[in-house]
User: Fold these one by one.
Assistant:
Number 1:
Amino acid sequence: MLRDITIGQYYPAKSCIHRLDPRTKIVGTILYIVSLFLFRSFSGFLVVGTAFAGVLILSRVPFRYMLRGLRPILMLLAFTVLCNFFLTSGEVVWQWKFLKITKEGLERGAFMGVRLILLIFGTSLMTYTTTPNQLTDGLERLLSPLKVIHFPAHEMAMMMSIALRFIPILTEEADRIRKAQMARGADMESGGPIKRAKAMIPVFIPLLVSAFRRAFDLAMAMEARCYHGGKGRTKMKPLRYHMADLFGYVYLACYMATIITLRIWLKI
Amino acid sequence: MIPVKIRDLVHDFVTRDEEGNLADKKRALDHIELDVEEGQFIAVLGANGSGKSTLAKHINALLLPTKGQVLTCDMDTADDNYLWEIRKSAGMVFQNPDNQIVATVVEEDVAFGPENLGIPTEEIIERVNDSLKAVGMSQYNASSPNHLSGGQKQRVAIAGILAMEPKCILMDEPTAMLDPVGRREVLETVRRLNREKGITVILITHYMEEVIDADRIFVMSEGHVAMQGTPREIFARVDELKELRLEVPQVTELAHELIKRGVPMPASILTPEEFAEEYCKAATGRTRSSAAEENRAETAYNGDTDENCAGEPVLSLQDVRFVYGENTAFETVALESVNLDIFQGEYIGLIGHTGSGKSTLIQLLNGLEKATAGTVRFLGEDIWAEGYNQRQLRSNVGLVFQYPDHQLFEATVIEDVSYGPGNQGLSKEEIRERAEWALTLVGVDKKQWTMSPLELSGGQKRRVAIAGVLAMKPKVLILDEPTAGLDPAGRDEILGEVDRIRRETGMTVVLVSHRMEDVARFADRLVVISDGHILYADTPREVFRHRDELTAVGLEVPQVTQVMQMLNRDGIPCRTDAITIAEALEALQ
C-alpha cells in the first residue's frame, strides 16, 4: 500500500558502517566526491575503487543494490559518455558522415562514465546505510556552527523531518482525492498535456487545502507540547562520536593523503 | 492544587479587514464558570460549534481570554511567565491522530515534549519507556506511526503528553476519527491513567456512551455551560439534551419513554445490564435471577417476513478476490471469495471495522479498483469486459467518500455540484438544472449555493458532497461513513435525508457504517464483512440474532437488542429481535 513507500533508500543491516555517526558519513561522502575530481588518469580510479570497495564490504550492502541506484541516472550516464565520444577532437578512429569518434573521445568518455558511476555509488552507500532521520540530525549538527551568522540549522532540520513524516500521508491522501473525483466522472487519463494538467486541478486544490489544515493543526500540537524552537532543547538520541568514528576519520585522512600525494608526485 | 478554575471567561473571535478595522465578531465563549477538582474524570459535551474545543484551548493557554480568568494548576494563563509550565502541566491530545505526531519513529515522537523541556537524555529515555508502557505501546517503540491504526496513534499521542509528566490531560474529541475498536482502546487507556496515576482527565466529546462513568459532566451550548452534574443527573434530562443536539444512550432513552408511559423505573439508566435489572423489578416485582428460574419461555417475533427481492440484480459480485500490492513484500488479501447481489431499490447497510475490506468492496462496485479474480456485473454486464464504458458506470454507481473535504474544490457550492454532470458532457442548462435539483434534494438552502464550500459547517459540507454525486443521477448511491465526525443531531439529519432521497427517487442505497444503530433503522439488508469475507448478508433482525459471533469480530448489536435478549434470558417474555427503540417500546408495553 501507499503508506509503505519509503523516502530515501535505507538498507537495514547491522554493520559498523551503519553504526557510524551520520556526521562521519556525510563528511566522508563530501571528501569522497572531492577526491573524484582530484585526478585525471585512470590509475586514480584504482585507489578510489579499492578504498570504496573496502567500505562497501564492511557495510554489508549487496553490490546489486549499488547497481540499482544507477538505474535512474542511466540516461544521464549514456548522454555524458556519448557526448564525450563524439565531441572530443583528436585522432579519428571511426567516422560516418559528420559523426566521428576519436581516440581521445573514447578515453574521456570512459573516464567520465566511471567517475559518474563512482560518484553515484558513494552517495548511494551513504543513503543505504543512514536513515533519513539520522541524515537530518547529522546535517543539523554539522551546520550548527553557522548559527553564528543566523543560519537556521535547527529549523531546517525540523522542516526536513516533518516533510519526511508527511510525504506518505499526503501521497495516500492524494490518491483518495483522485478516487473521489474519478467517482464524479473525472477523466485524468486521456487528452493532451494541457487537458491533463487541467484535470489535476480538482485533485490539487483539496490536497492543498488539506496540507494547510494539517500544517495549522501540527503547529498547534507542537506548541501544546512546549515546542519553542531549538533553544534549550535536549535530545533523546544525541549524536555522539564513538571509537568507530575515530577510525572512520583516520581512514578518510589516509585516503585523502594517498590521493593528494599520488596527484603531486606521480601526476596521476 | 486545583487543576482548572475558570471565572467569567469570555472569548470573542475577531476578524479584521485589511485596514485592521473590526469586520466581524463572534462570541465563542460566553461567561463560563467551571471548576475541576484534582483526580477527577471530567467530560465536556456539546454539539459541533458549541465552543467546547475553544474552552479546551483556553485551559492549555493556546487561546487567551477576551475577558475573565483561567487558572490552570493555579497558574494564570494570561501570565506569559507561566506559559510553558501550563502547557507542561495540562497536556493536550487533539482530534486528528496524524496531525499531532511530529517524528517518523514512535519513541522519538514521545520524546518530543521532554526534548522541548530540556530534560537530560537519560531521563528522556526513561520517561519515554515508562509512557509507552503506560499506554500499552511498548512493542511499537521503533515503528513508523504510518503503520499504526488510529487508536494506536492516539495512544502514542497520549504517551507523548505523559512523557511531560502532566497533572492534567485535556482531550479534544480524541475519538471522533476512530472506529469502535480504536475508541475503546483510547478510552480504556485514559480511564486507567485517571484511576491508577490520579491524573485529572478532561474529555471533550459528543459521544454519550463515552461519558457514563465520568465524575462530572459539563454540557456546552452556544458558548455557555447549559447543564452540569453527574452522568445520572444529566442523562435523566433526555428532552433537554435532545434540544441541545445531543442524545443519550439507547437504553436511557428507552427507559425515559417507558416512564412517560407509566412504567415505574428510575430516570437515569446508563447500561443495558442496569436496564434489564430495573425493568425486571418493575415488571415482575422480583430481581432478575429469581424471575429467570420461573419463566423460560421464549417468544420470538414471527411478524414481518421480508419478501425476497426477485429479478435481475443491479450489481452483482461473483467469487471476487482482491489482493493489494500483488507480488510485492506488502501483499495483503483484502477480499476473498465474495459473492453479493444488490437489487433495485434496496437499502443495504455495509458493516465491518477498519481493515475488514469494506472500503475495497465499494470501490470494486464502481470500477475504481479492479478485482484480482472474479467478476463484477452492473445490470448483467461485466464491467471489466473490453470496451465497457467505465466513466458511464461511475455516473450510474455514485460513490460518496467519507471526507467531503476530499472532493470539494470549486469556488462556489453550485459550481462544485456541477462538476459531476459537467463531466457527463451535458449542456449548460442541463448541468445547472441537475445541480439545482440535487442541492434541493439534499436540503441545502438557496442562500448557500453561491458560498464557498469551505465556509460551510461539517453537516452542510457533507450534504454538498452527496449532492455532487446525486447530480449525476446515479442508479445506485454508495455512501462511505457519511456521518463520521458529526454530532448526534447532525448524524440523524443526514441519515433521515438519505432515507428520504431513497424513497423519493427509488434509488438503490449502500450505506457503509460501523454504527449498528444507524443501519438497523433504515437498511433492508445488512452485509457484515470481516477479514475480507462476508459473514452475514441478511435482514438486520436476522443478523442481530448472532450477537456473540458479532462481538467476536469487534461489532456490537444495538443496545435495545442487547436489552431484549437479556430480558428474555431472564424470563421476561418479549420479542428478542427488536432493533429500534420504537420496536422495543412496543414489545415492552
Note: Residues 193-224 of chain A form the longest helix (32 residues).
Number 2:
Amino acid sequence: MAGVSIRKVVKVYEGKFQAVKAIDLEVAEDEFVVLVGPSGCGKSTTLRMVAGLEEISAGEIWIGDKLVNDVLPRERDIAMVFQNYALYPHMSVYDNMAFGLQQRKYPREEIQKRVQHAAGILDITALLDRKPKALSGGQRQRVAMGRAIVRNPKVFLFDEPLSNLDAKLRVQMRTEIKKLHQTIATTTLYVTHDQVEAMTLADRVVVMNAGRIEQVGAPQELYHHPATRFVAGFIGSPAMNFLPVDLYDDGGLKLRLADGIVLPVPAARVDRYGPYKGKAMTLGLRPENLTEIHDVERPGVTRIEAPIDVVEPMGSEILLHFFIDGKPLCARIAPDCVVTHGERFALAADLNQMHLIDDESGRVV
Amino acid sequence: MSDVILPPQPSSLPARLARGWARMKRNHIGFVICALGPVLALFVVIRIYPIAETIRLSFYDYHITRRSNPFVGLGNYAYLFEDGPFHEALVNTILFSMLAVVATLLLALACAILLRSIEKAAPIYELLFYIPVVTPWVPASVIWKWIFDPTFGALNYALSFFGVARLGWLQDPTLILFALVAVSVWKMVGYFVVIFGVGLRAIPEELLEAADLDGATAWRKLTRIVLPLMRPIILFSVVTCTIINFNVFAPVYVLTASSQGAPAYDFKVLVGEIYSNGFVYYHMGYAGAQCVVLLLFVMSLLIVQFLAFREKK
C-alpha cells in the first residue's frame, strides 16, 4: 500500500486549455479520497494523470516514494474502475478478472485462487463463466471492481463508476464500495459529480472547480464549514440558499435583505463579521435551518414570512420553495405540517447556522 | 320518414387497390415477397441463372461452333485430372492467393494501426492508399508492366543503386509470382486499410486503457484485445480478399505472355484457363467444369474461414 502525492500538477491541452491548474493534494495510505465537482472541473483529468493515461504538463505525481511522472501505466501498480466498466467483451468474467494477473505472469493456481476469492467477496462466483453482455449493469460493475481487487494494487482509482446505474442500484453499490474499502483497506481515489456519493463514501472530499481545488476536508467539515461560496452551494442537497444582504451596524450588527427584511446577527458571530460592515455580502442558509416556527423561540432564530411557490412532500420531510426579492429559497419543514401552494408561510431562520460570504473574494468569512 | 336502403355499390378501382394494399401489409410475408420480388427476380436472372447454366453446360461437350453438343456426364470433370495446364493454374492460383491475402491483410492491418496513432492525418493517408483501389486493373497493370520492364523499368533502375543486377520480374517463372502479388497488394491494400481503420475506431479507447493498466504490452494488447474484437472485420476481409484473389485475371492477362506479343512468362491462373478454354478454344462445357471447380474450391475455403473465425461459445 502507498499514499499518493500530487504536487503543483498542471494539465494543458494542445497548449491552450488549462484543465488542471497547479493542484496540490496528499492522499494518505489506505485513505478514501473523493474528487467531486461539476463537469469539466478537471477531476477526471486528475485521476487519469494519476493512472498515467494522461501526460502531466507540469508538476509531480508520487505513488508511495516513487515519482511516476514518466512511469508507464502498467508499471504504476494501480487499478482503475471505469465509468463504462471497460470489460473485455470477448472474455468471460473469469478471464476479465484474470487478465491483469496473466500479464504479470502469476502462476495459474495463484490466479485461480485470487479470482475465486475476489468473486466470493463480490458475490459473483456464479457469473464467472458468463460474458459481460450477459450481465446486468450492477453485475458488470462488480466484475469491474473484481478485476481491480484481484491484483491487490497500491492504489484504486474509480472514475464515476456508478453514473451508469439506476438510482436504486447506485445506492446499493455505493454501500458495497464502502464495505469493500472497509474489508480491503487500500488507498482509493474516487471521482464523481454526485455530492451525495462523495459525502457518503469519503474519508476526505476534494471539491474541484474550474481546474482548481476549492477545499479539501472531511464530509462533515465541508458541509458545516465550507470555505467558499462554490463549496457551500455544491455540497448539500437541496443546495444552500443564497441571499444578497447589506451588513450594517445599527446599535447592533444586522443584515438587511434587498426587500427590507432585517435579520440581527447572532451575538456569537458579531466579532467575526464586524470587519465586513458596509461590504456587499451574501447570506448562506441551508434549507434545514429554515423551518416552521416552533413554540419556543431560541436566540439567533428570526422569523421570515413569504408566499409558498412550490410544495414538495418527500415523505420524511416537506420541501417548500419561496421567492424572496426574486431569489429562490428552499425550506425544510416537518412532514406533518399542512401547507398549500400560494399561502403565506412563516419560517424560522436559524442564523446560528448561517454563513456569510464576501462577494468580492467568494470566501465564507 | 322511412329509411331508404341502397343496394351495395361496386367500389371504385382506387378504393379496391387501397384495400388490397392494406390487406397485403397486414399479411407480412406477402408484403415482403411483393416488396423484394423485383429485386429477387433480377438477382435470379443476373446471378443465379448464369451459375445454373454454367453448371448445366459443365455436363455437356459444348462447343460454340458445333451443332451437336452431346451430354458427357462427368466427362469434363474427369478430364480435369489429366489436364496439366489446369493443374499448373490451380497451384499458381492457390500460391498467388495465399501470398496476396496474407501480404495484403497484414500490410493493411499494420497501416491501419499506425494511422490510428496519427488520428488527424489518417483520412489523408487513407485517401492516398485508396487511389489504387479506384484505378481500373488494366491501366494499373500497364503501368506496372513498365515498372517491371527488365531494361527500362523503374524497379530495376531503383535497385541498381543498391548494386542489384537487372532482374526479369515478368520473365523469371519464380519472380513473376511475387511481381503479381506485389501488384495485387498495391491495388487492394487501401481498401482493407479503410476497413480495418473502421474496425479499430470501433474499439472503445477505455478497453485499451484498461489493458494498459492491467499490464498488457503493445503486442499483448494487439493479440488479446484488438484482434479478437476485430474478428468479424477480419473475417469479412479474409473472405473478400480470398474471393478477389482467386478470381485474379486482368493483371495476369496484361502482365504475362497472354497479352499480345508481350515477352513474359506464361503464368497460368484458373480464370485465365477458363477464359482460354471458353473464349479462345470455345470449349464452353469444359470451361464450365473449371468454373464449377473454382466455385467449389472457393466456397470450401470460405467455409473453413467461417469455422476458423467463429466466436467460441
Note: Chain B has two domains: 15-57, 85-309.
Number 3:
Amino acid sequence: MSAPVIEVESLGKVFQLGEIHREWSARLVERLRGRRAASAEVLHALADINFVVEEGEVFGVIGPNGAGKSTLLKILAGITDPSSGNAVLHGRIGSLLEVGTGFHPDLTGKENIFLNGTILGLRRREILDEYDRIVDFAGLEAFMDTPVKRYSSGMQVRLAFAVAAHLRPEILLIDEVLAVGDMAFQRKCLGAMKEVAGGGRTVLFVSHNMAAVGSLCHRTLLLRQGRVAALGPTDQVIETYIHSIDDPHTADNQGFVAFHERKPLFAHSPLLVRAARLVDDQGYPVTAARTGESLRVEVVVEGLNQFPSAVVGLTVRSVFDQKIFHFNTAMAGGFGSARRYSREHVRLEVQDLPLMAGAYSLDLLAFEPGVRLIDRVDGALSFDVVETDLYGGGYRGEAREGFIAVRGTCALWPDEGTP
Amino acid sequence: MMETPRTTYVRRPRSGWLDLALDELWAYRDLLFTLMWRNLTVRYKQSVIGIAWAVLKPVIQMLVFSVVFGRLANLPSDGVPYPIFLFAGLLPWTYFTTTVTSATGSLLAGSTMISKVYFPRMILPFSYLLTGLIDLALSMAVLFGMMVWYRADMVFGLPILLFPVFLLPAIVFAGGCGLWLSAMAVRYRDIHHLVPYLLQLGLFVTPVVYAVTLLPDNYQWILQLNPMTGVVEGFRWSLLGKHVTGWGWMSLGFGIALLVLLTGMIFFRRVERTVADVI
C-alpha cells in the first residue's frame, strides 16, 4: 500500500546575492573578455536535501526562520526551479502557501471562488460541482455577492481554505496557514487535513506550531541553514529542534542573538542591550522552553553600571503581538550592592512558565523605574514553548486554546434539586 | 469518484530552448477565461457608466483625430469618408496598444499570485488578449452603425466575413510583444516608462490616421512590413471595401508577427524559471 509519493534527491537551491541589475552588463563584459569574473556572492538556500514521503503520510517540516522551509515548499509546488538535484511527485498537487492568494478585493466572494479555484488548477465545472460545499464549509452563504474587500481577514481565510480543502488533491502542501482564523475554524481545518491524509492522500505540512506538528505529523524533517538537520519520528525531531541553536544569521555558536547593529531608540540613547539567548538549566543554549518549567533568558548588557537604579526586564508576547506577561530584575529582588561591570550578563529566570505550547517572542528592555526608558529591543528573541504533561493525565494544551496554562482542581456531586 | 491515472511531476533544473509547455497552457485554459473576466469586471467596478467606457474612449479619440488630422491637416483617406476610414483603423490599433500596455504590467500586477501558486505564467499576459477582444467587439458595433450611416450600400459585402482573419495577426503580434515586454519588465522596470513612447511612435509608422498612399510607391513596403499595417489595411479592405495593394509585403509582416510570438514564448519560458525569485 505505501508507495513513495514524494521523492527528493540531493535537491539544492542557490540564490544570487546583490544587485540583479548588475548582472547583464557584468555578464556581457565577462563574455567579451572570454572568462568568468569572480563569481558573485551566492546563498545556498537549500543544499543536498534527501527524503521520501510515503503515501498517506502526514509529513512535517520545521526549522528556524531562514532555514529553507518555504523554498523547499516552493520547489515542490513548482513555483520556482531548484538549482540542482530533483524532486519527483506522484499525484495531483494542491498547494496552500498563503491563503487567499489571487483573491481580488473588488470581486465578490463567488467570483473569487472561481478565480482562486482556477489558479489552483481546477476546471470551472469542477468548482461548480463543489460550489455549494465550499460555501457551506466557509459558512459564508450570506456574503457571496459581497466584494471580498468588505470581508474581515478571518472571513477571507475561511473562504480560501474552503476552496483549497475541496481541491481533492493527492498531495497537499501547506505552509503555516493555521496561524490565522478563529478556534472553531482552525479545528475544521485540522479536521480537513486529517481527512485528506486519512483518504490515502499525502500532506506535507510546514509550521512553527510545534503543537500542531506534534499532533498531526507522523514523521518530521528539521531544516537548518538549508540542510537536513534531523529526519525521523516527530517527537524525536522536535526534541532535537528544542536543543538546537537558533537562526544562523543572527545567532553565534553559543546561541547568542546580537542586537548591536540596530538604530538607537532615541537620538542619543545608548545601546545597552547587546545580545541575548535562551539557556536550559545547565546553561546550554536552547530555542524553546517547556510549559510549567523555567524560562531562562541570558542578556548581555554594556554600560548598565552607569545607571545604578536601572532594571532589566523582558516582556513576552504572543504570535498576535499581545503582551502576555512582564518580568524584571526588580521583581526578582534586584542585585543589591553586588559589584557591577561595564559589560555583564544578566540572567532572568521565570519559574513555572505559565504558557501553553506555541510560538512566542519577547522584548528586552532596560529602564529606570518611574524615570525613563533607557533601551528596548522589540522582538529580541523568538522561541517555542513545547507542551509537557503538565496535568499528569496526558492532556496536551496548546496556545490555540488560550495562552495561559493554569492549574486547578475539579469536583463532582449529585444534584439535589437546583431550582 | 473515478480513479484517474496518477500524474507525475518532476522538479529539476530546466534547460533547453524549445519547451513551450503548450499542453500545460491548454490544461489551464479555464484560468485564462477567469482572468479575462476578472480583468474586465475589476476595471469597471464602481464606475457609473461601466463597460460603456470601452466604447466611449475610441469614439472620443475618433472625434478628436477626425478634426485634427482629417479637417485641419487634411490627410488622405483614399476616397473613404475620413471618420469611418479612421475608425476602422483606430479599432485594431487601440486593441493592440491597450493589450500590449496591460500585458506588459501583467506579471508585476500578479506578483503575489506568482510567488505563491504555480500556474503557467503565460496565462497572465495572454488573458489581456481576450479582455481586449471584448472591448473591441463592443466598439465594432459602433463601427457597423457608422457604416450604415455613411454608405448603406457598401455594408455586408462578402469580404466582411473576412475581417476576423485580419484580427488574428493583431492578436499574434500583441501577444508576442506582450510576452517580450512583460518578461523584460520583471527585471527592468524601465520598460514601463518606455512602452507608452514606443506605442506613440508606433502610431506614426502604422497607417491609422493617414493612408499608405501618403508615401511614394517605392517606400510603401517599409510601412507594410509592420504587422499592424496589414491588420489596419485588412480591416479597411474587408469592412469598407477599400482598394488595397502590397499584400505580399504585408504577408511578410504577418510572418514577422508570428516570429515575434515564437521568440517571445521562448524568451518568456526562460524568464519564467526564476520569475518567482526575482519579482
Note: The radius of gyration of chain A is 25 Å.
Number 4:
Amino acid sequence: MNMKKKILQRSRKEKSVEIILLLCALVSVISVLFISFFIFQKGLPLFRTVTIAEFLLGTNWSPSSQTNPQFGILPFIAGSVYITLSSLLLAVPIGIMTAVFMAEIASKKAAEVMRSVVQLLAGIPSVIYGFFGVIVISKFIRETFGGSGYSMLSGAIILAIMVLPTIINITEVTLTSLPKKIKEGSLSLGATRWQTILKVQLPAAKSGIIAGIVLGMGRALGETMAVLMVAGNAPIMPKGPLSMVRTLTMNIVTDMGYASGDHMTALFSTSIVLFLFILILNISVNIIKGNPEEIQ
Amino acid sequence: MSIINLPAIDSSIDRLVEIERQKSNTNYEKAKRRNLAANVLLWGSAALTLGILLYILGFILYRGFRSDNIIESDFIDSSGISVPLDWHDGDSVLIVNDKTRLKEINLRDLESLLNGKPDNWGNINSQDLDVLPYMLSSAKGEFGKNTTYRESPSEIVSSVASQPGALGLIPASFLSLTENKDINIIPVKMLSVGVNPSVLEIENNIKLRYIDRKILRKILRGELTNWQEAAGRDMPVRLVLPPPGSFEWDALIEIAGVSSEELAQSAVGTSSFDEFYSKINSTPGAFGMIRNDRAEENNIKLLSYRYRQTGANLQWWFLFEEPKRAGRVGGISTIVLNTIYMVLLTVLFSTPIGIGAAVYLTEYAKQGTLVKMLRLGTETLAGIPSIIFGLFGFIVFVGAMHMGIGLLSGTLTLTLMILPTIIRTSEEAIKGVPRSFSAGSLALGAGKWQTIYKVVLPAAAPGILTGVILAIGRAVGETAALLFTMGFDYRAVKNLSTSARVLSTHLYQLVKEGISFDRAFATATILIFIVLFVNLVSTRLIKRKY
Amino acid sequence: MRSKLSIKELDFYYGDFKALHKVSMEIEPNKVTALIGPSGCGKSTLLKTLNRMNDLVAGSVVDGTVLYDGDDIYGKYDIIQLRKKIGMVFQSPNPFAMSIYDNIAYGPRIHGIKNKKVLDRIVEKSLRQAAIWEEIKNRLKGPALGLSGGQQQRLCIARVLAVEPDVILMDEPTSALDPVSTSRIEDLIDELKKEYTIIIVTHNMQQAGRISDSTAFFLNGYLEEMGATEKIFFNPDSKKTEDYISGKFG
C-alpha cells in the first residue's frame, strides 16, 4: 500500500515537473506571439489616419508637424534596403572566400585561428562597431570623398564587417559538411583545387551559402546602433553612396525618446514593416535550410 | 558481342576530338595559373578578415590605453618649471598634491583655479576634487575667496602635501622644499604665438588657421620666410625677437634649438617689452612668441598652435572612481557596478527558463507539431532585431506592467533576447550526454526528473555554462534594446526600478554627446576585454568538453 | 613486356603510423591486377599512392619510388597530368550534383575542351564504353543523382573514361552495389582491359578470381605475395595467403 502511494506521489511530481518545463519551453513562443501582437496593436491604428500606401510609399516624414503631419517611410525602407544590399555586396565575396580558405586551403591550425577570429568578430558589440565607424570609417570617407563622412557608404562598410562572421560561419560549416568523395571525384579527374571548389564544391554548398547570406541580410537589416552612429540619419530619400540615410531601425530609435500621439504610433508602424521584413527572411532561411539540394 | 558499340565512325568529328585532346594536353598550365591566382585571392580574403579584426581591436585597445590626440590651443606645448609670475618676486614654482592627476597646466587654467572659478578640478583634469589654492600672505586679497594664505613657503608645502586637490605657488628659490613625496611640481605653459593682424586676414579664400612646432621652428631659424609656406596668405614672415635675457627669449632659443646667431636673418630685435609688443602690432607679417597673459593688455592677436598630445589613458582609477557630470568627470565605477547587476539579474532570469526549455525539448517533448512550434518560436525569437525587443520591453515592461524605465525592465528585455542562445547551447549540451548515463540511473529506479536533475544536467554543465557565458557576452554588448527600457542614470542603482546606465549605453552616450573620445576609448577597451574574456572562457570550456 | 607501373620499396606513413612497408611490385599493361587482403592491410592506401590522392591526407609521407611508364610520379611529374592519365573510381558512386551530360563533360571541360560537338562526341563515346548509353541516352540533361546506384557507378566510370586515361584505379567499386549491378560492372571491367590497365581493390575473393589476371595479397602493410591470379588462388607460396584465400581469417 505504502509503495503504491509512493509511486503515485512520484508520478504526480513527475507530472508537475513536466508542466513547469513545458512552461519554460513556451516562453519563447509566447514572447514571439506577444511581441507580434503588441507591435501590431500599437502600430496598426495609424492606418485610421493614413492609408497604407501613403505610409509605405510616401517620401515625406514630418510626423510632428502641427498643421499637416506626414508619415511617409519610403526613404527609410529605401535606406534599409540600399544599406543592407551594399553591405552584402562587400561582405559576400570576402565572406565566401574566407570560408573557402578555412575549409579547403588552411592547415588545421590556421583554420582554428580563423575560427577564433570569426567568433571574436561576431562577439564585438555593435556599439563598438559604431564607435569604430565614427572614428575610423567616417573619417576615411570624409577625407577620401569629402562631405561629412556620415553616409550610406560608411554604414554599409560597418555592416559588411558585422555580417561577415554570419556568412563565413555558415558557408564554412556547409563546405566542411559536404561529403569528401565529391571533392575526391573532381581531383582524381585532374581538376585543380580551384576548379574543384568553383565547379563542384560551391555549387553543392549553394543552399547553405544562400541561407548564410539571408541570415546576414537579417542581421544587417535589424542592426541599429552601428548604423545609427555612422550613417547620418537624415530623413530624406538616399541619393547615393555618400548621402546620409536613415534606416527603419534608425527611425524608430531616433524619435522614440520624444514622440507622442500619431507620431509614436507611426514608429510602431515602422517596426511592423521591419518585423515583417525580418519574418520573411527568417521563413526563407527555414525553407532554404529545410530543402538542402541532393548533396547526399 | 562487344558491349562497346560505337556508332558509325564519323571521322571528321573523331579527328576534331583528337585535335582538341592534343591541345588539352598542353594547356593545363592555364588552369594552374588560375589556381594560383585563386589561392592568392583566398589567402587575401582570410588575411583581410584577420586584418579587420586586428585593426579594430588594436585601434581601440591602443587608444584605450594611450590617449593620442591632436590639440589646437592658444598655448605652445613647451612648459617651464620656474615661471616668472607677477604674484611673487622672481620665478615661481607650482606645486600640487600628488593625488591630483596633473602633468602640466596652462597659465589661463592656473589663473582661473587660483581665482576659485571653477572650484572643482573636473574641468581641468576630469577629477572630482575641490580646488584648494595656497598662496603666500604677501599676495593676500589678490585671489578668489577659497584661497588660503600662509606665511612661509614651507607652510604652503605642508598644507598642499596634506590635502588632495590642494595647489600652491612658492618662490623658485625654495625649490629644495619640494622634495616631498606627497607633492608634485607642475610645469606651466605660458607662451602663445602672437601675430600682426594682417597675418590672419583672408586672402583668396585662404586663412591661416594654425601653425605647428615644425613651422614654428622653421620660422625661428629663418627657413620659412613667407606665410604661404605655412598655408597662409602671400606675405613675408617678420620674426620679432623679445628683449634678450627675458623669459620669452630663453624659451625661444630653446625651441629654435640653435644659438642666437643662427636665428632668422630678417628677425627684428627689440630691447624692451613695449618695443616688442608694438613692433608685432605695427609690422605686417610680424610674428612673436609672447606670454599668453600679456596678449590681451597689449592688444595682440593670437594664432592657434596645433600639437599632438599623448599620454596614458585607461588606468585603474577609471574603474574605481564614481562618474560625475554625465561621465565627463571621474571614472565609471557605478557604471561597472550597474553592468554587473544587469548581468547577474539577466542570468538569474534566463538560465532556469532556458535550461528548463532545453530539458523539455530534449527529454520530454514528443516529436510533433508542438516541438516544431517550440523550435520555430525559439528560432524566430533569435532572429528578431534588438530594437524590436526594446520596443516590446518599452510597451510591456515599462508601460503595461508599470515597472518604469529601470533595471528590471531592462534585464527582462535582455532575458528574452538571450533566451534562444541559452536554449540552443543547453540543448546541444544535453544531447551530448551519453544515453548510458541516464539509462544507468533509470535502471536503478530513479525517476525521470531525478535522473535529469542528478545525472544529465551535471554532465551537461560545461556545455550549459558555455551558453550562459556567450549569453553574458551578448547581454553586456547590447545597447539598442536598453535605450528605452533601462535608461541612462549613471549613478549606482538603488533598487530594481532605478534607471541604470551600463557600459554599452555609456559608450553610446559618450560618443553621441561628444563628451570625450579618450573616455569612450577607455570604456570601449573595457567592453573589448569582457568580449575577449567571454570568448576565451567559452572556447576553453568547449575544448575541455571534447 | 614492359611494366605500366613499377613500385619500388614504397613506404607510406599516416603521421606516426606506417601503413606500407617496402612494397615493390610491377603492374603489367592491359591487365587487371587485383589487390586483396583484410581490412587495414594497406591495399587501398597503395591504390591511392598511385595517383597521389593520398596528397589530400594531412601528415602523409611517401618514401620510395613509383614509376609510371618509366617516370617517377613523386618526382617532377605534373600532378594534373598524372591524375588525367591514372583515373580513379571510388568505393561508393560520387557523381556531382549536375546533369548526366555535365558529369561526363566535366573532365574534358576542366582540361580546356569547349567545342560543343567534341564534347557531345566524348560524352557519347564514354557512356557507350561504360555500357550505360542505351539506358540513359534520352535523359542526358537529367540529374545524375537521379540514377540508381549501379548506374551511378557506371556513370563514374564513364566520367573517368572521358578524360582518356591510361590506367584506371578502382577502389572496391562494387561494394555498395547489388549483385546485378556488380556483374554488369565486372563485365565492363573485362571489356575495358583491352584498352586500359586496371588495378582493382576488392574485398570479394570471387570477384578477384573472376576478373583479375594477377593478384597481390597484402597483410599488415606488407605485400605478402603477388602472382598470376590462378597461382595465388590455387597454389600460393605463402601459408598466410592460403589461409586468407581459404577464409581462415580476414
Note: Chain C is about 35% helix and 25% strand.
